[in-house]
Amino acid sequence: MADEKSTAPDSSFGGAVSRRLMSLDALRGFDMFWIIGAEDLFHALDKISDTGVLRAVAEQLTHEEWEGFRFYDLIFPLFVFIVGVSLVFSLSKNLEAASKAAGKAAAIRRVFRRSLLLFALAIIYSGGFSNNWPDIRLLGVLNRIALCYLFAGLVFCFFRFPGMVAICASLLVGYWALMTFVPFPDVRPSPGGAQAIAKETGFTNVAQLNLKSTHRISGVFIQGVNLANYIDQKHLPGKKWDGTWDHEGLLSTLPAIATCLLGVFAGLLLRNRNIEDRRKVLYLLFAGLAGVLLGHLWGLQFPVIKKIWTSSYVLVAGGYSALLLGLFYLVIDVWKWQKWCQPFVWIGMNSITVYMANNIIGFDRLGLRLAGGDVKRFFDDAVAAGFGDLIAALVGLSLGILLCHFLYRKKIFLRL
User: What does DSSP assign to residue 188?
Assistant: First the structure.
């Protein structure tokens, strides 16, 4: 699983796509940067300085409870989008082999192997078999990435660009149609009431729901009361993140695959040698802006909701992802301003590794072990309330970055 060659590995999940596309490694690292501790810095700063600007930034580094979009709601779909960009480069080498049939077979084997390995890692990430059934989570963040890579990779192997576009559009429109028109039982104990079914309101298992309800509804997008959540309540086995349904549930995986396909389209653009680099940037920026605007427009009927990955959310998140990719590509690969992004490159080339490490050891917890307790209290008393949290967050984040730098310097790139 370790690749110690002198050249950067080619990976859809963690390694560099090529030296020419440093921007993609940097963007992947920028995405992971927030997950491994950068968000804690701003929450700590918010405690120190009660200003409107820092409060607004700290708020953007939390998820929307349900409807709406904040910066932190972009972190997950951005990574799925990047997986789509990367698979274009990693699979094209096989598909363009001298023997087309053998090349396609090799690409398909790679897609299945990586998906299975990542899905296995996902089970371990969620606790593995440390708990008894049914307290084992079968779907989660890495599970969804594995499924998106699997289906988007297969679509890329078997279809040309027009077919891929048709499949992507069908996923988005089809999901909207299912969520809007297909009736399902209102599982609330008091059908039609204002109470939402969610962990936060006390409903922690499906036994508390009225799954035998004869009151059928459609076109409803209440938290816990919508078609996607009902399918999880009825058919998703194992542990559900929100007690009775899961953020990464069954039906909402369909539009997530479309997010990965949007990344594939961006990858095809970047790989096209017949288009000048600056024009590629313009295409990405234009497509990104169009996606954001169209997504919010669609959101007037089909709200922008991350937790059920609505089609409008796909367009908004995909739009912002394209905008970020366009800016990173312009600055890093076109203008060649590259020194500033080196820490992001270190992180991006071992993204899955650092994600798993953060889950197992927890850089925030490690930071508290080194700068918590009396150390934290000293800074809180000597400087300002909350300054100890800032020091602990800096220590934890620095340890994560140092781990990535060590792996990069030793040319150790762990990949699937």
Answer: S
* DSSP secondary structure letter of residue 201: G
Burial class for 99, CB neighbours closer than 10 Å (0-12, 13-18, 19+): exposed
Task: Measure the CA–CA gap between 274 and 268, rounded to whole angstroms.
Answer: 11
What does the alpha-carbon distance between residue 195 and residue 173 come to, in Å, rounded to a whole number?
29
Question: Average of pLDDT values for 265-271?
Answer: 97
Per-residue tokens: 208: 């508390």
pLDDT (tens digit per residue) in 85-121:
999 999 998 888 756 778 889 999 999 999 999 999 9
Q: Where are the domains of the chain?
A: 2-178+251-414, 183-235
Res 321 pLDDT > 60 = yes
Q: List the one residue out of 372, 366, 411 whose CA is nearest residue 389.
A: 372
The chain-wide mean pLDDT, for the chain, equals: 90
Phi-psi region of 74 (alpha: psi -120 to 50; beta: other; left: phi over 0): alpha
Yes or no: say if 168 and 258 are a contact pair by the CB < 8 Å rule. Answer: yes
Q: In Å, how far are 65, 132, 214, 238, 342 from 359, measured between CA atoms?
A: 23, 20, 43, 20, 24
